[in-house]
Amino acid sequence: xxxxxxxxxxxxxxxxxxxxxxxxxxxxxxxxxxxxxxxxxxxxxxxxxxxxxxxxxxxxxxxxxxxxxxxxxxxxxxxxxxxxxxxxxxxxxxxxxxxxxxxxxxxxxxxxxxxxxxxxxxxxxxxxxxxxxxxxxxxxxxxxxxxxxxxxxxxxxxxxxxxxxxxxxxxxxxxxxxxxxxxxxxxxxxxxxxxxxxxxxxxxxxxxxxxxxxxxxxxxxxxxxxxxxxxxxxxxxxxxxxxxxxxxxxxxxxxxxxxxxxxxxxxxxxxxxxxxxxxxxxxxxxxxxxxxxxxxxx
Amino acid sequence: xxxxxxxxxxxxxxxxxxxxxxxxxxxxxxxxxxxxxxxxxxxxxxxxxxxxxxxxxxxxxxxxxxxxxxxxxxxxxxxxxxxxxxxxxxxxxxxxxxxxxxxxxxxxxxxxxxxxxxxxxxxxxxxxxxxxxxxxxxxxxxxxxxxxxxxxxxxxxxxxxxxxxxxxxxxxxxxxxxxxxxxxxxxxxxxxxxxxxxxxxxxxxxxxxxxxxxxxxxxxxxxxxxxxxxxxxxxxxxxxxxxxxxxxxxxxxxxxxxxxxxxxx
Lengths: 298, 265
Prior knowledge:
heterodimer, A: mainly alpha, MetI-like fold, 2 strands, B: mainly alpha, 13 helices, 79% helix
């Protein structure tokens, strides 16, 4: 029987054929992720002596109590938020501003858009190495400017400033990506509406505020949520630039979890911590989504 | 107004490309000290890095894992996206949404969850496992991008192919994929990028292996060769060039493809 013919059609495919076609992706990705989710929750409820191969015993909520009661994990989570919020605001505002600035369809603007986007392809690890050296005292113009402000031993060695320095590197790294999305969003706006508002005598500022931004809100909301989820989980950039130092000043949730799991092999506590971190990220992302999108419905 | 915009854009381009130029200059420094200037540059660091034993196999391994991930992404995502585009029901929407779950969870959660299983299955230290973790990252968005592309193709195409007696495999490989080449290219390029840049997974699952992925390799370099900065920078340039080239080739498609996916998502 042909995969296309059926009595119950929801489209052109039969249910069986559609299921078969989607099966590999569903098994590998949905199945693989669901397994991870169940497993990490199971681990978070166990006392496990992983290295010696000892038998795991049920721990109840004690792993959660251990990470939530004493300070380090919550402090790390707080640092994740302090890293994420300015990063996301910076990336989306800069991305949107540049997308509006390079909106015109002229050839030079096309080249400009491509030129702004390309640095995004630099692997995060290389970004981390480059920025480590940009911040190295005496190595670059950036470091010279910073030492002028009294950071002679390097900004990454100053506990009060190191997280901010990472935020800056992170904004540099991911602004091009969000610029790409927002630029495509701006290009997709109806030119007729913009022209009509011009005829009606609205200024460019009014146009941006009352026409462009409101129409982009759904896209902005999605991007804000995605950006928050990925920024909360960022490991590579921070690990390579500071390893969580100096004196734990840049030890975010992701760094804390990594050390707990793969350096101390405390899989129970690490699982509990990563579950809490994922939940916190989801709440933050959901909040941002509705705040950014909500106003458009009025 | 015009010159203001020009000025801002010039500044932005300077900021965007400054670190890239900084990296390039440092990689062409003669000797082993860290220095950036436009004069007295040499390619010493490049020839010595490429001459180091191990660097060749690192690059080969990285390329293999990356290409395998990109190819498998297309192989898995294309039929799934086609199914979701042509069969619409509550169950298929749920199934498509379930793919996004892996996108929401932090990578460290997945690494922790799989640590034990990977060891039990004797896959620890084997690069094959990285392809699996790569797919978890690449497939969700790929399916969404391809689905929105396939939805725009009129169903008459499928029907006429069916009337002419084409089977499903034949239809997918000889008709659907060729006419959706821009989206396929976007998915391929995006997967290539993500797989090439993987860091946490190789750090955790390939630690102690004879050959590492390039991202972990270059960071180990920082530790082992900390006295030879130009070599480290040259290595960084070498692992940046392939992804930048791929990105430039497919940038146009990535923009349209990803945006279609993002707007619908």
